[in-house]
Amino acid sequence: MRIVGIILVILSLPVLIAWLRRYPQQRKWAYLGVGLLPFIISAFNLDAAFINWEGWPGYAKGLVVSLLDTLALAILVTSKAPFRKLPFIGVFLLYLVAAILSVAVSTLPVSSTFYAFQLVRVFILFVAVASFAGTPGAMRWLCFGLALGAVFQAVVTIDQRLSGAIQATGTMGHQNLLGLMLHFVTLPLLALLLAGERNKLIMIGVLSALIAVALGVSRGAIAFVGIGILLLFVLSLARRPTAHKWKITGLAVLAMTVVVPVGISSLHERFGGRSAYEGPDGERQAFERAATAMWRDHPMGVGANQYVVTANAEGYSERAGVIWNYASRSTNVHNMYLLTAAEMGWAGLISLILLFAWPVLRGLHFAFRYRKDPRGDVVLGATVAIFVTAVHGLVEWIFVTGHAQYVFAIAMGIVAGSIRQYHREARLRSHAASGRAATLPQKVAASRARSMHAVAERP
């Protein structure tokens, strides 16, 4: 069956390319698919592994290609100059190079190659999204896909909750992953509503994402999506206050009156009499001690996708006091920056910080410099989602998984594509104005000539 899956995924590429070239008016469905697929790939097995290390304790378990990868590549192939003057290519490639360099120091280079290959797939998706995200109509269809993905996950989490699960994971396998991915749905869709969008699917998508986060009962996901929503409202109103935005703010408050009680009830059920808001527990601190020691001993890192194996094989978890059980000894330090530093060294840590910081700075600059551009609100939503994920990474490692990086690439593509498209339009307006200015003297001279000719012909 694995061979059949590989063949089907490979064959989907020429089929998708032919479809997009022959029916360019149908590209909207491809954009919708880009938003939807990250949330349904696992549920419907829409991927295939050329090399499969299912039992590997790292986060990248093989050379995997999904239907989203072939769709992104097809969009890329059928787009005009998708790499030209595209922001963020440099910082993304810097992070990719750091991952490739870590292969050289890895005790098992093949496993580290899995992560580098994953980043190549994510990079292709980023460029594909950027190729169309600057067009409002295309952006809208992408957001429809994100909304449908959230609705699907909400239905699954509700079913899991009714079946007795205290922490609903959707189809993502873990509530932390689901919660982090939904940052990139809730905030861009909410920003689209603030920009004036009135489509009911977008509204349902936001509510579905909030319900799925609440039923996941992940403290980090609940806290950071709340912080993101508050930050988005403040920045959006500061950028350009409108009566419509105040209306959406009121509706959001009403929605939270439904979602917050669900989240609080779930948290109480999960933690019983213990407070859900306690500070960092001893186990997290033990993980951080192990990662810090590993980074200190290996300034260039131990290799991407190698933390769990190295922490156990070289005794870092033992010396740091990590509990001896499968759940604790088979997972990563709950801090993506420490995880990256331990695995990819200083090069990985610096490039990861740039990968988050540069899109956030450019996104905020675009949103507040071009306040009248309607794309600015959606760019602001994607920017806040990236920022919240960067902060969330201080207490979570799940960003390094492929599904989380898919939605990150979509948000990054929205920001980069909008910036590039605005500058393209500005250049076209500038050229058009220059052309009018150049022909003006000719038109004046022609008008004078006609006037003189008319005077000469008078009797």
UniProtKB/TrEMBL annotation:
Answer yes or no on keyword Signal.
no
Subcellular locations according to the entry: Membrane
Q: Which spans are transmembrane here?
A: 28-46, 58-76, 88-108, 115-133, 139-156, 177-195, 201-234, 246-264, 336-358, 378-400, 406-422
Q: Which residues form the O-antigen ligase-related domain?
A: 205-352
Keyword tags: Membrane, Transmembrane, Transmembrane helix
GO CC entries: membrane
Q: Which InterPro entries match?
A: O-antigen_ligase-rel_domated (IPR007016), WaaL-like (IPR051533)
Pfam family example for this protein? Wzy_C
Q: Does the keyword DNA damage apply?
A: no
Membrane topology, record value: Multi-pass membrane protein
Tell me the protein's name: Putative membrane protein
